[in-house]
Amino acid sequence: MELDQNVIQIAVVAFIALAVGGALFAVLFPYFSGDAQVNKRVATVASKGSVSRSGGIRAFMQEDKKDGRRKQIQDTLKQFEEREKQRKKRVTLRLLIAQAGLDITVKAFWMASTALGIVTAAVLFLIGGVPLPIAGIAGLVGALGLPRWFLGFLCKRRQNVFVNDFADAIDVMVRGLKAGLPVTDAMKVIASETPPPVGPEFTEVVEGQRIGITIDQGLERMHERMPIAEVNFLAIVMAIQAKTGGNLAEALNNLSKVLRDRKKMTQKIKAVSQEAKASATIIGSLPFVIGGGMTILNPEYLMPLWETETGHLMLAGSGLWMGIGCLVMRKMINFNF
Length: 337
Prior knowledge:
mainly alpha
């Protein structure tokens, strides 16, 4: 049975149309079903995930570096705290003489102290007519108390002069570093151009480097000879910069600003506390002024205080309370920061 020619043509066309339709359906089906959008979103999320993972790794590495630097800074600060505690425990007479800026030995200091005590006791006993035991006590105070007080006075005065010139010295170092000089050469400029006591202290640091003493050790010795917070700040900045790196000129410039702000704060505190100091001076001197005036105008009025036992007890009690009041006022008007 032979098929009609028309039927065969129709069948061929139908098969071709079916094949083309199947191919088009296979190609266009993902777009109609939403699979293409799904695949596109999956690819986008995967790419973002890889970027976020790489960014997270970089952030983690940066945080790790920051943590390491922070740990180094904390370790350095702990070392300085331990050194400060040890330094306070081992303040010797030789160190006090160095802090005062005196070029004498401990033996010469004790000889001068003994001579001062003997002269004080002899003057009070021979010229003042003071009993021998009291003259001996006064001589002991003159031998042990007055020289130490004089050393403390010289140390305080030298530290005040050092603080006034120290910020300018740091500025000189900053300008030298910005001009390209090494730290040692910048310190040499300070040592040669800055007046005492800043210049000699930096000279000690520079001379120490010639015999193998590092800058950190030299600044630590400077802090022993000049035990103030400003020198400790410089030592901390130099030690941290040596261990963690960074722009030393910028760090020292910030330190200079801090030192100048501290100086301004100190001067402001002194100006504000002058009224309290004047009041304390007037209150403390009133009993002596009034007592001296009464002794001159009417000597017999105050004789019971000097001649009777009750008067002696009143004088002792008044002196005790006056001393306590002066110490309290001194504590109130002195600010340490």
